[in-house]
Amino acid sequence: MNIALIGYGKMGHMIEEIALQRGHTVVLKINIDNTEDFTQENMAAADVAIEFTAPDSAYQNVMRCFQFGVPVVSGSTGWNQQLSEAKEHCLQNGGAFLHASNFSIGVNIFFQVNKLLAKLMASQPEYEVQLKEVHHTQKKDAPSGTAVTLAEQVLEYIDRKKAWVSGPAQQPEDLPIISERIDPAPGTHYVKYTSPIDDIEIIHTAHNRKGFALGAVLAAEFIAGKKGVFSMDDVLKF
Ligand SMILES: NC(=O)c1ccc[n+]([C@@H]2O[C@H](COP(=O)([O-])OP(=O)(O)OC[C@H]3O[C@@H](n4cnc5c(N)ncnc54)[C@H](O)[C@@H]3O)[C@@H](O)[C@H]2O)c1
Prior knowledge:
alpha/beta; Rossmann fold; five-stranded mixed beta sheet; about 25% strand
């Protein structure tokens, strides 16, 4: 498979390493310094694009991949506001798109555990719930995209919480997400339920970025040649 890498930073480099190990070819690498090379002509050789850039560039990059008719896997976080617009555009124009706030297989299993726990806690109002995420200091968005996904899953089941908030809860219906920035943490997420009697906590700790990169390459292998909007649940057959 021929891959175009849109964003060649920490994740782009790791994705290249894994893609080459899995027998793929990287035909284009776009960074902030060579955006003029992100053209229809250069993209023609790509079966799929993998986009890991930044919150303010992800939407434009994904839309350009649609314009060039190249299926796109995006891992950029912090652009949730425009994500549904991108998905809608993809469906209306016959493109292929897969976005995940976290590509690691472990985190996607953690998402399933989180949903199950929230479902069980829905009828246990004595438990308070709180999320925490710890990442490296270069991370641009807070809370992390993964923490937002975890929070949305909790809100889906627990009616006593109405919306997530960044920082401590201001009112009982708030679901707090506490963000800490400590180097060199690649990412730890906590979901904790506390009652006067006991606590239940689930934790996922990434040891490095390899899991995100492998998941992104698996997603690229899955989406190549398809049309539609997909998620990691489709890739992992959950
Ligand atoms: N979904 C996941 O599993 C996952 C995992 C890790 C990181 N991320 C997210 O992926 C993104 C990238 O993370 P990173 O650690 O590689 O960051 P990074 O800062 O190391 O790399 C980002 C790269 O994007 C390039 N870039 C910026 N603007 C661009 C533009 N307009 N066009 C083309 N390239 C551009 C920069 O030159 C840089 O090399 C972040 O949003 C991060 O939160 C997602």
